[in-house]
Amino acid sequence: FFFFFFCIVGGAAVLGVGVWTLVEKSDYLSLLASSTFAVSAYILILAGGLVVVTGFLGCCAVIREQRSCLSTYFFFLLLIFLIELVAGVLAYVYYQRLSDELKEHLNQTMTENYAQPGKETITSAVDRLQQDFKCCGSNNSQDWTLSVYIRSERSGGRVVPDSCCKTITADCGRRDHPSNIYKGGCITKLEQFLADHLLVIGAVGIGVACLQICGMVFTCCLHRRIKMDPY
C-alpha cells in the first residue's frame, strides 16, 4: 500500500507539473511557432491522471487479491510508461530546437502581429513578456523600428510599445531613452524560461517513469504470489 500511495503522489506531481506548465505564463505559448511545448504538457497531464487512477486500481487489486486486476494494473502502468516516454522525447527534441525556433520566429511574430486586428492574444503576450522579463523587442529595442504597428499612424508617434517602459504611463513609448525603457531583448530570457520548464518536465517524467518500472516489477512478483482466481 505504501508503494501505491507513492504512485498516487507521483501521479499527482506529474499532473501538477503539467497544469503548472500550461497556466504559468501560458500567454507565451502564442509566441511559439510550434505546439510541441504545449503538447508535452498535455501529455504529462494525461499521464498524471492515469497514474492517480491506476494507483487506486492497484490498491483494489491487492485488497481483492485477483490476478486479473493485477494484469489490468500492469497494462496501465506499461501504457503510462510509454506515454511519459513520448512526452520525454518531445521535450528533449524541442529543447534542442528551442533556440533556433526563437531566433527564426520570435522577432517576426512580434513585429508583424503586435497590435494588429485579430492578434489580441499575441499583443497581450508580448506586453506581458516585456513587462515580466523587463525587456524590449526580440534582440533589443531597435527591433521595433521595423514593426508594422510602430510604422503606422495608430502608434501615435511611439517608437516602442508602452510595455517597454520601466514605468508604464500614457504614451510613454514615445521616448526611447535608457532611463525610460528597457533596452535589452527578450529572446534570451524567454529561451531560458522555456528551457527551465522543459527541464522540469523531463526530470519529473523520468522520475515517475522509474517509479512505473518498479511498479511493473512489483506487480509481476505479486501476480506470481497470488493464487489463481477460481472465478
UniProtKB/TrEMBL annotation:
Top-level taxonomic group: Eukaryota
Pfam families to which the protein is assigned, alphabetical: Tetraspanin
SUPFAM superfamilies assigned: Tetraspanin
Membrane topology: Multi-pass membrane protein
Chain ranges passing through the membrane: 40-63, 75-95, 198-222
Record-level GO cellular component terms: plasma membrane
Primary residence: membrane
Subcellular location: Membrane
Matches recorded under InterPro entries: Tetraspanin/Peripherin (IPR018499), Tetraspanin_animals (IPR000301), Tetraspanin_EC2_sf (IPR008952)
Alphabetic keyword roster: Membrane, Transmembrane, Transmembrane helix
Family: Belongs to the tetraspanin (TM4SF) family.
Name of the protein: Tetraspanin
